[in-house]
Amino acid sequence: MKILIKSGRVVDPANKLDKKLDILVVDGKIAELAANIDPGNAEVINAAGLIVTPGLVDMHTHLRDPGYEYKEDIISGTRAAAAGGVTSLACMPNTSPVNDSLAVTQYIITKAKEQGSANVFPIGSITKGMNGELLAEMGELKEGGCVGFSDDGLPVINGEMMRRGLEYANTFGVPIFTHAEDLSLVAGGSMNEGSVSTELGLKGIPWVAEDAVTARDIMLAELTGAHLHVCHVSTKGSVELVRHAKARGVRVTCEATPHHFMLTDEAVRGYNANFKMNPPLRTQEDVDAVRAGLADGTIDAIATDHAPHHIDEKNVEFAIAMNGVVGLETLLPLTLKLVAEKVLDLSKAIALLTCQPAEILGIDRGTLAVGAVADITLINPNKEWTVEADKLHSKSKNTSFDGQTMRGYAVRTILAGKTVFER
Amino acid sequence: MATETIEILDTDGVNRALTRIAHEILEHNKGVEDLVLIGIRTGGAYLASQLQQVISAIEGVKVPLGIIDVTMYRDDLCSRSDLAVGQTDIPFRLRDQKIVLVDDVLFTGRTIRAAMGAVMDLGRPQNIQLAILIDRGHRELPIRPDYIGRNLPTARNEQIKVDFDDLNTAQAVHLLRN
Amino acid sequence: MSFNPKHILGIKDLSTDEINFILDTADSFKEINTRQIKKVPTLRGKTVVNLFYEASTRTRTSFEIAGKRLSADTVNISASGSSVAKGETLEDTAKNIQAMHPDIIVMRHGASGACQYLAERLDCSVINAGDGMHEHPSQALLDAFTIRQHKGSIEGLTVAIVGDITHSRVVRSDIYCLSKLGAKVRLAGPGTMLPPGIEKLGCEVFNNLEDAIRDADVVMMLRIQRERQGTPLIPSVREYARFFGLNGNKMDLAKKDAIVMHPGPINRGVELGTAIADGPQNVILNQVENGVAVRMALLYLVAGGEKLQEDC
Ligand SMILES: [Zn+2]
Ligand SMILES: [Zn+2]
């Protein structure tokens, strides 16, 4: 089984590549990269005018399976991933039951392998049942395929528990993903605290709720020497905290979501719950700081925090609507927008979507090196299209970008040499 | 479209009409006892005030004068573009009074119906009479004026305009034809 | 000018002319309330549903009387709860009511934005009778109406509002309304009751009552919620009254002819000392009286006129 991807602009930051090359895939692996490879008996895919990158890696999603299949499942979630050019994703453990056992981990991996359209790497919970009281069996979970641990959706409230989580995860060489949030400061808030929340009469969530726990967890990483990954940094302060920690050698990485670098709390005017997420949309100052963090390497990955919710959970009063938005199918164009706006160059942008998250997750993806699994995304960077919530592949339609014009999308997504999505 | 304007009454004509109406009112009511004037906002209110002066000049008595706004009693709530509501100002009792409703132009009769409803809500008068400067026809309700300044058959799409000066004194009446 | 709104959701979206038009309309309706027969046929055949998710005898009664004086058929529905967990959603309830073909829904709801939510989903008109901490337009309009009645004009006046600014929808609407009409609005309260960025709505913020009411033409006191959920905002009602209650001779700081307002119901001895609550400067009962006229005007204006894509 041979495929030849011909004449594309190959952008593979892992191998510092950005040039027009042909890629030969044999039996699901990258066999050769060169100019003008003789097709022989290979199936030829013409990639002229397209950008060819390693399959994108989204290190933060919620697939809702098992337990909340009415919102999303592994089949629909990975289909949305493939449509967005994403070939590998990590999924958070806040399912029902929580992914705190080998059984759940194996269920996810098996279902994804058998019925999915993307590689799924489960993240196990730090504490059993995500209730913050007892450590989950991280050793066995890691053996079973978990790539990291998180109680995402909830913070680990108890500082000592977080410390133990870091120390214990470090034993097995995997990171802890922190959802940094001080619930006592959130205190029932439903959007960013500021002049917009005051005007709308919605209880605000101050930036301190995020920064305080980010600071605590960074210090705990410093104390324990463990690898801390900060999920969805959204404030100027969090970016600054990570930047300083990196400078003094703390093992900390972090990610940012497209909605946090594209939207501000102004979007909440109108009370549309598709602009309600956690952390909430912040101010322009924060958006600028997140973009600066992406540009200077403080932020290591762009991840969606893809959080599908049923229409009934969103079509309610803003204050009681559920947090979160889907993102897999808009990840790529929104990242390319940063390139168009000259925040990032293309190679840096692709690194944030491929090799950098892959490295944090410790997975052998995000590269087009010879011998690597042939997960490849073909991108038309210039195609303009309009997001139509109803047409998303995800079961849930809670996008912040409905009706928005996007530029660029994946035209073909290849998973281990097999096309899983094409348009 | 050019609008053709035809003068129907000049200032003297208006005054003559009002004087005649005043005499007819006094004659019909045998004087001013229990007589009150109620003008319909806004043209009718101005004319009622003028009538009050004319009656005073004839009879030496100032009959009570009230102003009524009929907006709240109109039957076209949902098709109006202007929703402004004027004030009703009737500083006296209406019970057992002889009321002369005054308006500038009588057309479909709907305004008068509304005005009668409004008056009746404020008290039970002895009777209600109607004084009109111009009756242009096209009645949609069984309403008939008691005192008419001028009968003027018109086409439906024509307009009657009563001009008032700064002191709200009627100066002339014009017919506007498209 | 005429004003022909489909909904009244907040003051923020209204222009100065539109606010004045509402106040002028209310002026005309006010006369009805002094008649022997307090009823006009204006809204005959119209159905007004008062959908109240929070108990509020005053506002609901005021809207109910307003509707009845205009000959509308008014129906009161008290609903409770507003979460998915409790079963029927706001949209379900609204659609149920819509199926009965009301012309106007007057809604009070604990969630900010709930009235806008309803207006976006239903065909009938929606009047916001208070949504969460967002807006309470009819209260602000009756406040403006009352000030205008006592002061002639609002332009150039200084209005001090004291109390729990954070949790008050009345304040937000009052700031928009009074500043659009040309008043200077000052706010005062303890730091725990002053929300961030409130000055962007068009007002000045003070940390003490005295500075706020100095030379003010109007002093508006807000009701203090004695029991609140969450972390307490004040150590005690006693201390609050001492620093932020309008009592003793504090009113001497305001202009001699200043008036005292309160959206009610008052806590005697807390935000208002009894001498002031019963004093000549107090116009609280005027506010209540004017509330009916203002609400008549709102019902009339949303019911009347040709509305887009609707036949009535
Ligand atoms: Zn999270
Ligand atoms: Zn998440």
Describe this structure in words.
The complex is a heterotrimer of chains A (about 425), B (about 180) and C (about 300). Chain A is built from 14 helices and 18 strands. In chain A, a hairpin with a 4-residue loop joins strand 1 (about 1-10) and strand 2 (about 15-25). Chain A has helices spanning about 75-85, 100-115, 140-145, 160-170, 185, 195-200, 210-225, 235-245, 260, 285-295, 310-315, 330-340, 345-355, 355-360, and strands at about 1-10, 15-25, 30-35, 45, 50-55, 55-60, 85-90, 120, 150, 175-180, 190, 205, 230, 250-255, 300, 375-385, 405-415, 420. In chain A, about 60% of the residues are buried. In chain A, helix 4 crosses helix 7 (about 210-225) and helix 12 (about 330-340) runs antiparallel to helix 13 (about 345-355). Chain B is α/β, with parallel strands linked by helices. Chain B has a 5-stranded parallel beta sheet with strand order 3-2-4-5-6. In chain B, strands 1-8-7 form a 3-stranded antiparallel beta sheet. With about 300 residues, chain C is α/β, with parallel strands linked by helices. In chain C, strands 7-6-5-8-9 form a 5-stranded parallel beta sheet. A 4-stranded parallel beta sheet of chain C has the order 2-1-3-4, with helices on both faces. Chain C is globular, with a radius of gyration of 19 Å. Chains in contact: A-C, B-C. One zinc ion binds near residues 153 and 179 of chain A.
- As for the CATH topology of the largest domain in chain A, it is TIM Barrel
The best one-word shape of chain C is globular
The overall strand count of chain A is 18
Radius of gyration of chain C: 19 Å
Question: Into which percent range does the helicity of residues of chain C fall?
Answer: 25-40%
Q: Kindly report how far apart the N and C termini of chain A lie.
A: 22 Å
The largest pleated sheet of chain A is described as: 8 strands, mixed
> Which CATH class of the largest domain in chain C is shown?
Alpha Beta
Number of beta-strand segments of chain C: 9
Q: What is the H/E order of chain C? A: HEHEHEHEHEHEEHEHEHH
- In CATH, the architecture of the largest domain in chain C is 3-Layer(aba) Sandwich
Major protein interface: A-C, 24 and 30 residues
- Please identify the oligomeric state: heterotrimer
Bound molecules: zinc ion
Query: Whole-number average pLDDT of chain C?
Result: 92
Q: Into which percentage range does the β-strand content of chain A fall?
A: 15-25%
- Order of strands across the main sheet of chain C: 7-6-5-8-9
Number of helices of chain A: 14
Main sheet attributes: strand count, strand direction, barrel closure of chain C: 5 strands, parallel
The radius of gyration of chain A is: 20 Å
